[in-house]
Amino acid sequence: MSPSSNTSLIRSLGLGYVIVFILANILGSGVYKKVAPMADQLNSSGWVLVAWILGGIVTLFGALSNAEIAGMLADTGGEYAYFKKIYNRFLSFMFGWANFSVIQTAAISSIAYVFAQSFLSIVEIPPILPGLADISIGGVFFPFADMTTKLIAIGLIILLSAINTKSIKSGANLSRAIIWLVSIGLAAIVIFGLSSPKANLMQSFDFHTSPDNPITISVMFTAMLAAFWAYQGWSSIGFIGGEVKDANKNLPKGIAIGVGLIIAIYLLVNITYMSVLSIDALKAVNASGTQVAAIEVVRVLFGNNGLLFISILIIITTLGCTHATIYGSARTYYAMAKEKLFFSSMAKLNASSVPANVIFIQAIWACLLVLSGSFDQLTDMIIFAMFIFYGATTAGVFILRKKMPDAHRPYKVWGYPVIPAFFILFCIGLVINTFMTQPREAFMGVVLMLSGIPFYLWFTRKGQPNIE
Predict the structure, then answer these.
(1) Considering the entire predicted model, what is its pTM?
(2) What does the buried/exposed string (b/e) look like for 81-110 if buried means 16 or more CB atoms within 10 Å of the residue's CB?
(3) I want to staple 381 with a disulfide (CB 3.0 to 4.6 A). Which of 74, 260, 292, 441 is the partner?
């Protein structure tokens, strides 16, 4: 994306907008579903809550580090452009390619998957091709397993992609409405859940574990992969960093308050979940592969009436998230194509001034990723890949302070150099641990990211990219 010719963006956004922006970009499918795989890993409600808190603290450290880069390079917009300043054109391309091959397309697939699961909880559709469910590719991929869920997810991706080729509207009003619905829905779950005679509050604070399932650093790292999916979205603050009033105060304060609110919301909601469902019940939800924890909690509390409410809430939430991700993600690939770092046909706009070719190729790959695995496999792969680049962006704080010591920084990260250094070390630890505990997801992520190298050589060989 070409840098703006205006080097002095109008700083018109206040603290309130920064907080709302962060909430809007983080609240999504993870709050409804991720408690189940975390319970399966940790076997203790108390330790699940610890994982949510630690995940929130690490997220806050990463967001505060990212905010310095965002404020400094706000005119260029986003990590794809940051990497050209911090590193070079190659690593900038690799970030863009990783978004296409793993991060953003798998995010589209994952959110659509939860939409489909919620849809099937209120609309009964017979299993499709159940006899082919055990067919695998190398014993790793089961493309026909849960085929009904996958076909609904694929249908949603195709439908929303087609809609996105007809309009360039961002859907800001829809996003605001969805945030209100999500907030009201989660508040209702917490208030009615904790006040229900079916809830056992102390059950949520049980730290007991069996000798067969000890809590280790590795186990905690693995469980936090699920938490980080729920916290995903904070890096979007980079796109408005140059337009925040009094950024030196409002940006870090807004990030701290926004992420702090998210931590509090997640704790309250998950305390409610684990007050209603035991750890064994949550493990059963995870083992089913098709159930959503929030739906099962509401089913216990309110029966079918509550089931309809929570299912519709999740459907609306995931519909909006999928739509926003499809639209927003396409911008990076279009920018790459304009710089001759992606397929040339992707740089074309249709009659509605929309990069339709980009949206369709994105949809095709996202649909294939739906067939490749389950929701949790996809999100673990996303978080693994994303934390590689989170660490690289945070390392940019140190690099740019050396390369550009006199550059204007509207905000400098709190606790420098300790907080960014801690976050970088955490990113390294998470990546190593994922290789050890989730080798399939890590290997898939690495292969898909590294597949960009021959494409980069091909694109740059065809012509010198114009990145100005």
Answers:
(1) 0.78
(2) bbbbbbbeebebbbbbbbbbbbbbbbbbbb
(3) 441
